[in-house]
Amino acid sequence: MESLVEYLGCGAYYYSTPDQNVGDFVVKKYLDLTEKIIPFFTRYPIQGVKALDFEDFKKAAELMKNKEHLTELGLEQIRLIQMGMNRGRE
C-alpha cells in the first residue's frame, strides 16, 4: 500500500495497528482525487461490490466539481450517496 503513494504521486499511508499489518491510504486533495485516483480506478476497475461504492464516490465527486455541494440540496444528495455506501448498501 505504501507504494501507492509513490506510484500515484499523492496521498499518504497511515498504519492503523501497532504491528503495521493494517493501514489506510488517505488522499485529501480534491484535485488528486479527480485527476489521479478516479482515472486510475476507471482504467483499472475495482471488482466486486466495492465497484458500486466507487461509482457512488464518482457521483459525489461530480457534484462537488459542479459546486452543488455548496447548496443544501447538493449537500443532501451527497449525504444520501454516502449513506448508501459500504455497509449502508442493500
In the predicted model, the low-confidence regions spanning at least 5 consecutive residues are none
State the helical fraction: 40-55%
Mean pLDDT: 93
What radius of gyration results from the CA coordinates?
Answer: 15 Å
**Which structural class do you get from the secondary structure elements?**
mainly alpha
- SS strand fraction: 5-15%
Major pleated sheet: 2 strands, antiparallel
Q: Walk across the major sheet and give the strand order.
A: 1-2
Total beta-strand segments:
2
The helix count comes to: 4
The dominant shape is globular
Give the SSE order as H and E letters.
HEEHHH
Q: Measure the end-to-end span.
A: 29 Å
Element layout with pairings:
Blueprint: H1 2-8, E1 12-15, E2 23-26, H2 30-43, H3 50-65, H4 72-83
What report would you give on this structure?
The protein is mainly α and 90 residues long. The chain has a domain at 45-90. It is built from 4 helices and 2 strands; from the N terminus they run αββααα. It has a two-stranded antiparallel ribbon. β1 (12-15) and β2 form a beta hairpin. The radius of gyration is 15 Å and the shape is globular. The two termini are 29 Å apart. The model has no long low-confidence stretch (mean pLDDT 93).
Give a quick summary of the entry.
The chain is mainly α and 90 residues long. The chain has helices at residues 2-8, 30-43, 50-65, 72-83, and strands at residues 12-15, 23-26.
